[in-house]
Each structure stands twice: as structure tokens, then as C-alpha cells.
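Bug report (template v2)

What were you trying to do?
Predict the complex of my protein with oxa(dethia)-CoA.

What happened?
Run completed; filing so the output is reviewed.

Input:
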Amino acid sequence: MGKLRAAITGVHGWVPDYVLTNAELEKMVDTSDEWITTRSGIIERRILKGEGQGASVIGAEVVKGLLEKTGTKPEEIDMLIISTVTPDYAFPATANIVSDMCGLKNAWSYDLNAACSGFLFALTTGSQFIETGTHKKVLIVGAEKMSMLTDYTDRTTCVLFGDGGGGVLLEPTTEEVGIMDSKHYTDGSGRQYLYQKGGGSVKPPSFETVASKEHFVHQEGQSVFKFAVKGMADVSVEIMERNNLTSDSIAWLVPHQANLRIIDATARRMKLDPRKVMINIQKYGNTTTGTIPLCLWEWEDQLSKGDNLILSAFGGGFTWGSVYVKWAY
Ligand code: UT7
């Protein structure tokens, strides 16, 4: 019998209906469609509107869709990990709330925060529980309501982010498919370039933190860009080389969607045909931990059993990493 691996046996994504276009942003801040598209590749993004609508709304839609698509009963789920930087509350975990909303009565659940790399960190974490044989059905979800962290008077960030999410079901297999390898990094010395200044235990919420807009995302774009281009390309090539993969044997690169120029640079370093790169940044912007599962969801019909996929991300923290997946269906 072969090694026990975690296979992705279903994928689902969900985005809210409201479309925030570049044209609408032109009316809100001093920007232009031309600047946004040439610098980032983004044309529009989705926004979750409505009072009391948190990241759990996105997570629950993803989980319900996954259960339906895979014919899985809620009580069969052993574990749910939600990666998010926009949880419903500081505590309890959004995963606990989604478990309750979806009737996952036999699952334990928790949140994981690795910013834009969160989905990959969660995927690798969840796959370990399958590989040990202790868990049979594990849900990994990235759910992000980035609009709550976005200052719509700051043109340097408000054009970039959107709301949405996606997820996968992991199940055991002894076939040569599934999560084959992963490599992750963190470098906390990069934290000052991309973070939320206020609201945590260092700077608890106060009139001052609100007045100085410290509850919104702070990003020094150019600095992050330099680290992201190198980090995402390096780790993608590293995972290719240590699994003896060539640009011909890779079916798809599934990159985090922060900036089209970062994606292109990564694909070039991997010597990949641009047609093998999943890109939907133009429609959804940067949904942080949502981008990679949203790509898998949109490309699901084009994937075949045995396809080699390289999933790669770079994000705040800094965090970055790559997961090598052999598609299982
Ligand atoms: O997802 C996790 C990790 N995040 C990333 O990977 C994001 C990495 N960074 C980036 O993607 C890019 O740095 C940005 C898209 C955020 C910005 O692109 P850039 O080419 O690095 O632009 P910049 O920040 O160097 O700004 C260039 C100019 C500045 O004007 P000056 O100082 O040259 O006069 C900005 O003030 O563009 C200006 N600018 C804008 N102009 C029109 C900044 N934002 C805007 C805007 N519209 N929205």
C-alpha cells in the first residue's frame, strides 16, 4: 500500500454580488483606471455589503457549496481550518462560527492567520491530519472581508483589495495524487511593511487609533513588491527543483493574486508558458487568503487527474510558500 496522502476531492469558491469597478474608485480617490490596471492588473473587485456581514458569511457559503458538491454530510467533517485576517471577532474563531452555521457537529475548528499565504499554510497544516490517518475529512477555507480593513480614502491601498473566498475538501488516498510537498517561510522582520497598526494588544482600540486610521491595512507597496517578487519566485523554483518538475511537467501555476507583475515574474522564473498560469486578479483584486482557492474553483473544469499544480503565495508577515499538488480528480 502506498503512502497515505491528503487529496483535494472538491473545491468551491464564493464572492459577493457587489462589483466595485475602477470607474467607481476614480470618483472616490485621485486615481485612474489606467494606473490601476497597468500597476496591478485589477479591473474590478467584489465587496460584501450589509450590516453584520462578516467573513463567516463567505466561509459558510464556501463550506455549504463544498458539502453539496462533494455529497458530504455536515456531520462527516472531522475538522475545519479557516485562514483569515478579517475574522468576525478577535475571538471566538470564525471557523467556530462557520461550523455552527453549517452544522459541522463532529468537527473541531480553528482559525489560522498567515495573511496572503494563509490558505497554503492551512492546506499544509490540514494535510498533516489526513496523512497521520487520524482525520478522514478536513475542510480548508480562506475567507476574507478585506473591505473592513480598507481605507477608501487611501488610494495606495483601496484599489487593491476585494472580498471573497474559497476552500477545498481533503480526504485520504493511497494513490500518487494529492498534496505531494510543501515549503513555507516566515520573516517577521518584514512586519512593518504590511500590517494593521491598531486594534491588537500593542495598541488596543482607542479614540486615537480610530482617528488616526490605524485599524486599516498599512502597506508600503514598493518594499513589499520587492520581497514578494523574489520570495514567490524563489520558493516556486525551489519546490519545482526538489520534486524534479520541469516547466513541461507542470500543468498549472496557481499564484496568489496581489499584482499581475509579481505573477508574471514568478512564471518567468519558472520558465512557464503564460497559458499555464491561473489569473483572475482582474475580476476579484487581492482577496488575501481567498485568491488561490478562488482560482482553483474557476479552473476546476480544466483540471485533470494527475495534473501537477504549483500553488504559491507571498504575504504580510512576511509569509510565503509553495505547495505541490497532484490533482486527484
Ligand atoms: O498581497 C500581499 C502582498 N502584497 C503585495 O504583494 C503588493 C506588492 N506591491 C504592489 O503590488 C505595488 O507596489 C502596488 C500596486 C501597491 C503599487 O505599485 P507601484 O508601482 O509600486 O507604485 P508606487 O507605490 O511606487 O507608487 C508610484 C506612484 C506614487 O506617486 P509618486 O510618488 O511617484 O508621485 C504614488 O503616490 O503612484 C502613486 N499612486 C497612485 N496613483 C494613482 C499610488 N497609488 C495610486 C493610485 N492611483 N491608486
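What did the reviewer find?
The chain has two domains: 5-176, 180-326. The chain has a mean pLDDT of 97.
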